[in-house]
Design goal:
alpha/beta; Double Stranded RNA Binding Domain; four-stranded mixed sheet; 2 domains; 14% strand; 176 residues; Arc Repressor Mutant, subunit A; 36% helix
Length: 176
């Protein structure tokens, strides 16, 4: 596998069939279940158009194993899974990196995340970054709430119900 080559595979989890894309550098995209495997793969290929089906490498197998454990309720550290954020802006890489530091079971506001990423006045831009997150769970956008503790948004399949479910796996109950 060359550094530029991207492969993908589907895998089963406690919440359904997910799809993962990776390169030699790290994981590039993750799509949560979206009703059926065909739709999930279509969503993945919208992010990684050049990805080809492939047999998971050791790196991809480790990410899949960690994700499967997480979705069974074993909130293992996802921050150690290597990511390939090639093509993302420096701002996005800073925001995603800062968010990976937020441990399971904790939340952060959009404004706090902007500050942690070195752009204290960029809360709205952080919200847009969360909406474009190519790696839900690995970049735990479900942990980002509004400044008053509200749910904010969640652009993945299932919307806010999925966000609440992921937070519940980590022991965080959202207020109604």
């Amino acid at each position: 596998m060359t550094p530029a080559q991207t492969s993908f595979a589907c895998f089963d989890t406690a919440i359904g069939r997910c799809a993962l894309a990776w390169s030699a550098r790290g994981v590039r995209a993750l799509c949560l279940p979206d009703g059926n495997a065909t739709r999930t793969v279509r969503n993945l290929l919208m992010r990684e158009a050049r990805a080809e089906p492939g047999k998971p490498t050791a790196l991809a197998r480790a990410a899949i194993t960690a994700l499967q454990a997480y979705l069974r309720g074993q909130t293992s550290a996802m921050a150690t899974v290597p990511l390939d954020l090639t093509g993302h802006t420096p701002f996005l890489r800073k925001v995603y990196g800062a968010l990976r530091e937020v441990p399971a079971g904790h939340t952060i506001s959009y404004g706090q995340l902007a500050k942690a990423a070195g752009s204290s006045k960029a809360a709205r831009a952080v919200g847009r970054a969360m909406a474009r997150n190519p790696l839900p769970i690995l970049i735990p956008c479900h942990r980002v709430l509004t400044s008053d503790g509200g749910r904010g948004g969640y652009s993945g399949p299932g919307g806010l119900a999925t966000k609440a479910r992921l937070l519940a796996l980590e022991g965080v109950a959202l207020r109604s």
